[in-house]
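Can't paste images in this forum, so I'm doing it all in text. The chain is below; anyone willing to post the predicted structure tokens underneath?
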Amino acid sequence: MNSATKTISLLIVILSLILTGGSASGIQSQVTVIVGGVLIDGNGSRPLADAVVVVQGDRIKAVGKRGTVAYPQDARIIRADGKFVLPGLIDLHVHYQAWQGELYLAHGVTTVKDTGNPIEWLEAQSAAIDQGRTEGPRLFYTGNSLTSPPAVKDHHIGLDSPETGVRAVRILKDHGATAIKVHQQISPELLRAICEEAHKLGLRVTGHLRRIGAREAALAGIDGLEHATGIPRSAGAHPDLLKTDNPENDLIGYYDDLYEAAEMEEARFAPLIKLLVEKKVAITPTLITWFRVASDHRADYAREDAEYARIDALGYVPESARRQWRTSTIYEPKDASDLERFRLAYKKMSSFLKLFHDAGGLLLAGSATVDNIPGLSMHREMELMTELGLSPAEVLEISTRRNAMFLGRDKDLGTIATGRLADIILLEANPLENIKNTRRIGMVMKNGKVIDTRYRLDYAMPYPRPKLVRPLWLEQQLRK
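Text version of the structure:
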């Protein structure tokens, strides 16, 4: 190519950038308009019939009733007559794996918060999604879970002093963590130091508790309780019910938590709820994982899981996960006595959560996806939340706007409003009439781009989760 040709080519590129608003791809001027649907905007407002949502680039440019919103004649039109327009769903508790991305998106989950994985892997995985090297939901994360020794899980960090805890918080923040998670062995002293430093840095602290109860954690400054852990201990359950911290036997620990919940004393609910509300401690109950064993839908969920295990296009899913989908054995009680006890635990916890919600407590939605179907598990979580006594409208607001608020990202996510990121789903039926209609997804948009929600056997996974060997990367940083 001679110099004159190069000059002409450069002028063409510059002119193209000017005409497209500064983007070589034209993404900034590309306008997509969703027309005619019923808008459920995530704010808890009344649904808006015959709505128009104008998307330019990755943002929502305008929202309103048809006839009141202007848009270019050459805009791409998506007809939504008879459909329902909602913000993308947000799952606040996942344990992300490289193979899960398109499953989340196919089920309308456009944002997730990972609550336990190595920070260096999550940083790389999040970047791969943002840069388009793999498809997946927007990925926020806490990184390695922080705890007092011993560190019982492969990504946990056992911290020997409050000072080390402060350093760990700073390193996690520097590598993209948007919150901090503490885990089962955490002491009140270490938790207090972690909370103080995290709050200085604008981070929330959430925890999976075992050694201490919710009351102690609230007084130490914690912002959220994962799986509603800590509540049974502070509501009358005896600590001797927790028999194991064995990292090789999660099932025993899981049963221990259920046994503990069955021992809660309802007379102690009110003062604990009062404290949690006053301290603004949120609860993410993860009902679909923690109480699936006691749910009346257990058999239905097992059948669904087995159907997913037979989908050929999901052949990239690891055999260990597909085996769990085929059998769902961990959600089958050992005997009738256990089932009765688990159902009592579920009944008591359901009562506590509804009272907490009614008292103004911040109830959040997360599925704790490990063995469940990614994405589908969020819909199941919402279904179980309505069984607590919440309306579908409340559950939808929790699963969008309130989850975004807890992430600290409500200026960008969780609602359909001017200026927000264009994460939008279309449903074929009204979720306000039946929350199960959230499963009937007709379209998924993330960052203004309509997603191909088909499963692909060649799904790209550039960064599989590594097998961890100690000292972990974060442990190495703490030794410097």
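Residues 1-28 have pLDDT under 50 and may be disordered. The radius of gyration is 23 Å.
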